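Run log, item B.
One chain of 328 residues. Sequence copied directly from the ordering sheet:
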Amino acid sequence: MYLLLVSFAILMGLAVGWSIGANDAANSLGTAVGSKVLTLKQAIILITIFGFLGAFLQGSYVTKTIGKGIVPMAELGKNLALYLALVSTFAACAWVVLATYWKMPISTSHSIVGAVAGAGLAIGAPIRWKVLLDIFICWVFTPVGAAILGYIFYRIFKNIFYRIIPRKYIKITMAALITVSGCYVAYSWGANDVANATGVMVGAGILSPHISVMLGGVAIVLGIVTWGYKVIETIGTQITRLLPIMAFSVQLASAINVHIYTVFGIPVSTSHSIVGAIFGVGLVRGVRVLNVRIMREIIICWLATPFISGIISFLVLKGIMVFVKIGG
């Protein structure tokens, strides 16, 4: 029975990885597609390569926070930790898949953090509220920081770029900058988000950190190549119309923003970062160019995500406990 539950838990973690690839792939090169620098197929190939590299090389930084920082899973009984991992990954995956179907770029980080906290409450585990508060503060600053960086970068680049680059080289130079900065976004996204898929597996002692980031990286790649195109439309074309130099500013701002949080092991939303950067760049041209209705819908989904995934995991785990004794 234990091995069967372990298998289910790993499958659910892989499903979360798949949903991350499906929902968040747009964050790295969606703007490049929206600005016509890359085709959808070219963008998906690059996201796949650099997203996996980020997961493999720096994915372990955030894994500790997801696996042990919110609920001290290592201090729980073996079965409790296993059920918490299984149910929290199920709840996070269910909500992300629904949001992806509705083409909304929600945060898988918010989803898994809310789900872990909800499952922890269901079994009466100690919740580290201080860690949750710190994560929440970082969530608030993620889009704000990206918006500020995006605003500054676009202000600088739009004034100097056309002065220092000869006219005949502008198009190719801009395409190269957008592609490279988009690959950097994909790398920082893979490094930060892979923990959302398999962090609880490490916390429950099911997988080693090294194996977990490998499996998570593969699952993310599958999500990119099968469903990743869905949210790219929203990111690339429906928030604001992006010129190539705007796309470069957005991607550079978002990548730097997420990479900083990754180094400190904080699970933040790449979706928040890229949408915040788009907002900041859009402000340079004036609020009128922003699609306020889309922005409002996205913000509502952001706010609802941790609560919905937390409620799902809480109710599912409570339901299981009615029929199964899982203590110890």
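Observations after the first pass:
- The radius of gyration is 20 Å.
- The mean pLDDT is 83.
Flagged for discussion on Thursday.
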